[in-house]
Amino acid sequence: MNRNDFPMLNQNIIYFDNGATTLKPKCVIDAMSDYYTNYSANAHRGDYDISYKVDVAYENARKNVAEFINADREEVVFTSGTTESLNMIVSGFFANLLEPGDEVLITRSEHASNVLPWFRLAKTNGIIIKYIELNDHYEVTMESLLSSFTNRTKVVSLAHATNVVGDVRPIKEIAKFVHANDAFLVVDGAQSVPHMKTDVKYLDCDFLAFSLHKMCGPTGVGVLYGKKELLESLIPTNLGGGMNESFDSIDEVVLKELPLRLEAGTQNIAGVIGASSAIDYLNSIGIDNIHAREVELKNYLVSKLERIDHVNIVNPYGESGIVAFTVDDVFAQDVAYYLNKYHICVRAGNHCAKILKNEIGVKNTVRISLYFYNTKEEIDKLVSLLSDKERIIREMI
Amino acid sequence: MDNNMKREIILDNYSHPTNKTSDGTEGYIKVNSNSESCIDNIDLYIKIEDNIIKDIKFDGEACAISTASTSIMIKNMIGSTIDEAMSMIENFDNMLNEREYDDTNLNEAIVFDETYKQGNRKTCVTLPYTGIKKVLESYKK
Question: Which three-class secondary structure state does DSSP give residue A195?
């Protein structure tokens, strides 16, 4: 699907590492190049024509992103990525709210970015981190959430789709329960927003974080979405230009309205413009079509891999394009090196989910993460290379 | 040495690595060596007496190249003095970085003489050397 839009695909590679980052369509590259070539000025300083043009492009990008997730414009803050968004949520909002003994629920399949900020808060604020138990398919169920939830639980922080197992959590249902019990729901959307319809009003999450580079956009741009009333009390981690209204002395600092208050300093303008182009691009294909295509490819891949005895799939279930597996007697990195000889790009390792190993019983896996531009022919080539174990061992070095 | 021969030596050391165990390492100096760019992670156990490396064992998870390189390094270093081991490390490093090196005492380590062509495998090959160098340097002080 749409393969001609991606210059990287002219290189005769098979790119299966979309969970790490996606390839960029030419329109995104062109949009950024256009900014640098034709109106390379700073934003929010509209004293001359090209600067005004930047202002318009930057704020249009915000509107574009807001519409993509059905948020209001002032609820969309540009960051450098999911990691920064989650860190801002934890250290700018929850650090000021949570008290010693308050509980935060996460799972063992969260990405480091949704674990380590909470770990630090446990050290500094004395909050308690608890893990929602995963079922046999490494999924979060409402039953397991309920059994971990106590009257001290103040936050539930979960990936919508996880980056190793690829399971999709019932966020809407979780939000309903969490709110009925006076707690907050933080959603890490890094692996979900690029792949499925995400409507923050429908889901009713309090915060959502995601990265544009995982959805055909440039690196270095992320989004922090928060319900307006919550963002109002998020204390800016960065202070400086562009986020203050006026300052005369320590006691006379007036900050700007949302969302500019949370975007100190010159922003990643080219990136944001590229991000907006990526959103346009995804809209032109249709996020539902993208999702359907990925599920089709994943089911195809799983059905093929299941026929190979020495391949063990960690997560044959789940409605996302992520498949993690091991090969009997071969170290995950060696599988990746072997595939690399045939220009197939896959990721090997623990995929930043370092506490998941206790759940799935293996430390390192090979991960295939698909996007809409992958094809069944690419999967066939992968499967054929994996089907002969002796060949893998012979050629992995 | 042709590539098939090299592959055989590497595979042999990977399938039957020298001293891959942490058993019986009481009194050994332990050092962890892991790579930031990949998932190799090994513990080396070194026994030094009278300035001589009496024994080396290792354990952990690593790719074929890394495991083979560790196994070969262990065979080469057991019985050598600290200074000899240090010069082996330097010589190996020279080979990996396209500088002049002495191929007379490399033994099986010569299988990595073309690794310099593969940037992404260099860290695999050097993993055990990085670990043992730390130990030897601090021992000398």
Answer: coil
A211 and A191 in contact (C-beta within 8 Å)? no
For residue A129, which phi and psi values (nearest 5 degrees)? -100, 130
Residues of A in contact with B63 (CB under 8 A): 331, 333-334, 337
Q: What is the β-pairing status of strands A311-313 and A14-15? A: unpaired
CATH number of residue A131's parent domain:
3.40.640.10
Q: What is the pLDDT of residue A242?
A: 87
Nearest-CB residue to B65 (from A348, A394, A397): A397
Q: Verify that A269 and A293 share a domain, yes or no.
A: no
Residue B14 at interface with chain A, using a CB cutoff of 8 Å: yes
Cα dihedral B50, B53, B54, B58 in deg (nearest 10): 140
What single DSSP character describes residue A90? I
Mean pLDDT, consecutive 10-residue stretches, chain A (397 aa), reads: 94 96 98 97 85 95 98 98 98 97 96 96 96 92 96 98 91 98 98 97 98 98 98 94 88 90 95 98 97 96 97 90 94 94 92 70 87 98 96 90
CB contact under 8 A, B63 and A350: no
- pTM, to two decimals: 0.91
Q: Same structural domain for residues A250 and A302?
A: no
Interior/surface letters B56-81, b for 16+ CB within 10 angstroms, e for the rest:
bbbbbbbbbbbbbbbbbbbbbbbebe
Out of A334, A363, A397, closest to residue B7 by CB: A397
Domain boundary among the residues A284, A319, A336 is at A284
Residue A199: which of A345, A58, A364, A69 has the closest Cα? A69
- Compute the distance between CA of residue B78 and CA of residue B34 in angstroms, rounded to an integer: 22
Residue A366 has φ and ψ, to the nearest 5°, of -95, 135
Alpha helix stretches (DSSP H) within chain A: 26-38, 49-68, 82-88, 116-125, 142-148, 171-180, 200-203, 228-231, 269-285, 287-305, 332-340, 357-360, 376-386, 389-395
Domain B3-140 has CATH 3.30.1490.20: no
Given an 8 Å threshold on Cβ–Cβ distance, is A337 in contact with B63?
A: yes
Q: To probe the interface with A, which of B59, B63, B70, B118 has the most A CB atoms within 10 Å? A: B63
